[in-house]
Design a protein that fits this description.
Blueprint (H helix, E strand, L loop, with lengths): L4 H14 L17 H18 L1 H17 L1
Length: 72
């Protein structure tokens, strides 16, 4: 006799709990919502402008990039 879906789910959850994990619920932005892509572009543009104006940040990023080259 096949195991029901609810029984498989219960066993899986029990195994995850036994492994020290717990279930959580998170809410994330709805990417299907009208205006989502436009808001993403707007925020990305704000960050890009702020990064472009911050010389110290640019120097830090260049330094980090150079450090990565040494790891190869």
């Amino acid at each position: 006799m096949p195991i029901s879906v609810s029984e498989r789910v219960r066993k899986r959850r029990d195994a995850m709990r036994a492994a020290g994990l717990r279930p959580v619920q998170i809410w994330v932005p709805d990417t299907r919502r009208p205006g989502f892509a436009a808001e993403c572009r707007s925020q990305a543009q704000l960050v890009a402008c702020a990064d472009w104006r911050d010389a110290d940040l640019a120097a830090l990023m260049d330094s980090a990039l150079n450090d990565l080259d040494e790891w190869r």
